[in-house]
Amino acid sequence: MFVFKAPSIYTGSCWRQSLGSELQGVSRVLVISDQTNAADKVSDSLCEYVSDLERHNPKSRLTLSNVRTSANKIHSFRPDAIVAIGGDLVMDTAKLTRALYEDPGKDFRPKPFKLERKYTLSKDRVKLICAPIASGAGSEVTPFATLSGEKGKHSNGARAVDYALIPDVVIVDDELAAGSESTTMIGLHALSRAIESYVSEYATEYTKGYSLRAARILFQNTLLHNNNASTMAGMASANAWNSRSDSIAFALHDLYRVPCWLTNAIVLPHVIHHTPFFEREYAELAVYCGLADPHSATAKDLVAGLQRLNRASGVPERLRSLSVFTENDFERIALLACYDSLQFGFILHAPSVDKFKQILVDSF
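User: That's the sequence. What structure does it adopt?
Assistant: Structure tokens below.
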């Protein structure tokens, strides 16, 4: 039996009321945020509810040493709650910081075949409240966090996967996103997670509803900001998991600092081509997203829709256009991607280095 606590989610024009409700009886709050007007507004409002407030802006690179520094800094402050306000970097920083603060010896290295959905809550659990401003892939609701390698080093990053990372409360309020820059990455990364979670062997009728709805919204509004769709994609991938495209994206991010959203956008059409055993599911997605006729839909319709979206978004067609690696690097990339993917424990269609290499060849 899988056991984990899903976050409480507030949506709509709710951030003031939900913070007031969730922070009742709380006196010490650490705010982890980026430097935006929305983050300033929320931080200022928190003074109405708490007596002791400290704010922390994360480093631009999410390395394990930076997270440990953040955790050490708050050790003397000893907050009752952490409020994270920002994008994926802020969300991941807050999740990892809380985990290390509660368990300084926690190991986030990938554990192939060992992903468990059961964890023990600390007696002194610090409440984590996440309010995304520019959510890219629903990180505010996922048990994932991408750690970069230390500066000047390669292949020592990690995609941490641990259900202890899931926040307690999530606030999805478009008011916080008002005025923030709408970027392509907001939709394309979330879209890849919606599609991959839909075809996961661990998908259920519950997760598929999130996947479908998120995919349709994002196909229609990818260049617009939509926090709800990103959060739904995150909810789907948190429970059904996604791996192939995202594992390659993680590898290229760790080795060559290529943004995950960009790699996902380029690679996903080729992942679909190399997973023909999901033909029916891909066709269902194409129909639901308005890309194909229900009587003749195939996976090719979904691929064509993704390619049109990429062209409209200015995404290059091939990985070769990034000019950061060559064919000689495929083995190393495939090994790292496969190692990352193995921790999800897929059985029916287990990952392999050869499969990842073939996707890289076609994508290049």
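DSSP finds 14 helices and eight strands in the chain.
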